[in-house]
Amino acid sequence: MASNHVAQTHKKGSVPPWSAIEPWESSPEKTQNRDSSQKRGRALFQDASLSSAAKQARKKFLRFFPVGFRDETYLDWERDYKREAHEEWNEVLDRPEHLSLLKDGAFSEIAARAV
Contact 68/37 with Cβ under 8 angstroms? Predict the structure, then answer.
C-alpha cells in the first residue's frame, strides 16, 4: 500500500505566500551569481509585446526569485516537492503498471494505490 507521503508532501499554506516573504530572506549562498541573471531578467521587461500586467507579474516573480526558474528559493518552494511527489508516484504506480491495471479492469486497485 502506498504511503500518504505523496498527498502530504505539500499542503496549502505550508509554504508562505510570496506576499508574506521578503525577497532578502534568502541565504547568502542562494544569492551567488544573481547579478548577471538579474540583468537578463530585467532585460525581459523591454519586450513590447507583453501587457503591463504580464510585465508586473514578471517583475514580482523576479523580485522573489532573482535567478528566475533556476533560483534556489524557487526550486525549494515550487519545484522540488512536485518532483519528489512525481518520483514517488512512479514508484507506487508507473505508467506500464497503470496501463496494465486499466486493461485488466482493476480500477479499485488503481484507486487504492492513488491514495
Answer: yes
